[in-house]
Amino acid sequence: MVDKVWVCDDEGSERFPVFTRGNVGETFVEAVSPLTWSAYGPHAWDAGWRDAFCGIGLFTPDEFKPPGQPEIVCCFGGYVYINMSVTRVLAVRIPGMTVEAIDKSLFGDYPDVPPYRPDPRDANAARTAAVGTWLASLFTADPRPDTDVDRVRLDALLARRPDVTALPDAQLLEYFRSLRPEARRLFDRHVRNTYGGNVLTSVIAQVSAAVGAGELAATVTAAVGDVESAGQAFDLWNLSRVVKASPVLTAAFDAGVEGLLDRLRATGEPDAGRFLDAWDTFIARWGFLGLSVWEFRSPTYATDPGMPLRMLDRARQAPDEASPDARAAHFAAEREAAVTEIQRRLSGNPAVLGQFTGAARNAGRYLAARERGKLHCAMLNDAARGAVRELGLRLVQRGQLARWEDLLLVTDDEVDDFIADPARFAGLIVDRAAKLELLRSKEPPFVFVGDPPPLDAYRDRGTGHIEHAAAGTRLQGIGVSPGRHTGRARVITSLDLDSDLEPGEVIVAATTDASWGPLFLAAGAVVVETGAAISHAAIVSRELGVPAAVSVSDATRLIRNGAMVTVDGNTGVVIVE
C-alpha cells in the first residue's frame, strides 16, 4: 500500500490502473479540500458515474470496488483524476469504436499518454450486447427532455431549501449531506450525456477523416444552439452593450471595477439603477458559477462579483460586430455546409451516410444536454457550499476558525466531532492548511499507471522553464472550433486576476471551465493546453463563434504574452508569428 499524500486520497486500482487529469482538470482545477472530497467524491460523483455505466449496460456493479471506495473518479495527491482504463474499456465494448478515438475525444493529444494494454476482462460479449440498445438510441433519441425534467425537479428541491442561517449547526451538516443522493442522480445523467456526446463526436471525427475532411469535424458540431453553459456569456454580452451605450456606466467602469457596484448605488442615476437591476438578475441566474464549481471552498460569481465584473469590463470594449449571436449565425451556416459536403462524399456508402447523418444531427443535442446537466450539478453543489459556508462563518464569528474555508480541512468522518469541539482540532487545522497550500503550489502528473505518484513526482507550479517559441514555430493541438484568427496572445492563469484582455486578443490558458465563458466574448480565438472535442472550451467556443484549439501542450509557457499568433480552429495549428 502506498502512503497517502493527502488525507482524503484514495487507493489506486489494480484492475483499472491508468488515471489522468484530462477532462477533470477543468472542473477540479486545484487541490481538493478534505470535506469536499470525502463527503461527495465517493457518495455522489464516483457512485453516480458507476450508476451511469451500469445503467447503460456497459459494466456490472461487481466489476468495480465495493461502494464507497472510488475507482472511476478518485483523489490522489490532493488532485482529482479520472480512470482512463475504465473509459478505454468502453471503447473495447462498443462496436466500431476505437481506443484511440475515445482517448482523443476525451483527453486530447497529450504526448505522454500510455498505450492501451489489453486485459482479457475488457472484451465482454454480454456487455457489448447489453450496451447495444443505448448505443443505437444515441443516433435517434433526444436527451434534452429528460434533462429538462431534471431541472424542474432541481428547481423544486432548491425552492424547498431551508434558511441555512436559521438551522442549528447539526442540522446544517445534515442538510449538507442530504443533498448527496440528488447529486448522485444528477451526476449519473451528466455522465450518460457526456459519453453519448463523446461517442457521437468520435463517429463524426472518424467518418470525416475517412473521407478526407478531418478539418470539418469541428464545424459539424459548431453553433448547435441551446448550450446552457454559454448562456451567461450571451447574458453578459447584452449587459456589455448596456454599459457601452451609457456615458454614466462607461465612466463608472473606466474608474475601475473595484468598488464599482457601491459607486453605482450611490449615484442615483437612472442608468445606474437599471444596470444594477439587470446585474442582480444576472447574479440570481448565474451566481453559482465560479473558479472551480465542484470544490466547496471556491468563490463564485455571487460571493466574488469582481470575477464577472472584470469579464464584463473586457466585453464592453469589444465592437458590436463581435456579437456572439452574429458569430454563432456564421458558424451555423458553416455547419450546414460542412454536413452537406461530408454527406456528398458518402453518397456511395449509404450505411455510413446514415450513421454520419444521425451523429451529426444528435451530437449537438447531446452536447447541449451534457452542458445543461453539468450546470445542474453546479447548482446543487452551490446549495451544499452554502450550507458549509454558513457553518464556517459561524465558527469564524465565534473565534473558533480564522477563515470559514478552514472548516473544509476536516473529513466527513471528522466534521461532527470538530463542530462539537473545534479547539481539539486546532493543531490539525493549522497543519492541513499548510499542506493544502503546498499541494496548491504543485502541478500533479497529467497521467500515471499503477500506484499513485508520491509528492516528489509533482512539479513546482511555474517551474520547468521552457524557452518561448521562436517566430514561425507551429504548435499542434486539436481544432475544436472552426475559423482562423491572428491576434496578440494574452496568457491568462486565473479568473481571479485582472487579465487586461483586449478585444481580438487570443486567450492562452492551461484550462478553462464554465465560469470562463463570458471572457471569450472579447477574444479573437482561444488556445488551451488541455481538453478535447467535448471539453468546456471546445463546446462554448463553438457556441460563441470563436476559433479554438485545445490540447496545445505547454502553450502558456511556449507562447510569450503579447506575441502575435495565428490560430486555426479547424486543424488545431497555432503559429507564432
3D structure, described in words:
The protein is of the alpha+beta class and 577 residues long. Helix content is 48%, strand content 9%. It has an eight-stranded mixed beta sheet. A four-stranded antiparallel beta sheet has the order 2-3-1-5. Helix 2 (84-93) crosses helix 3 (99-107) and helix 9 crosses helix 10. The model has no long low-confidence stretch (mean pLDDT 93).
Structure summary:
The protein is an alpha+beta fold and 577 residues long. The protein contains 19 helices and 14 strands. It has three domains: 18-211 and 346-440, no CATH class; 228-325, no CATH class; 474-576, Glucose Oxidase, domain 1.
The structural domain count equals 3
If helices are DSSP runs of H or I spanning 4 or more residues, what is the number of helices? 19
Class from secondary-structure proportions? alpha+beta
The chain-level mean pLDDT equals: 93
Shape: globular
**Gyration radius over CA:** 23 Å
Stretches where pLDDT is under 50 for at least 5 consecutive residues are: none
Adjacency order of strands in the biggest sheet: 7-14-13-9-10-11-12-8
Tell me about the biggest sheet?
Answer: 8 strands, mixed
Residue share in β-strands? 5-15%
Distance between the termini: 50 Å
Please estimate the helix content: 40-55%
Number of strands: 14
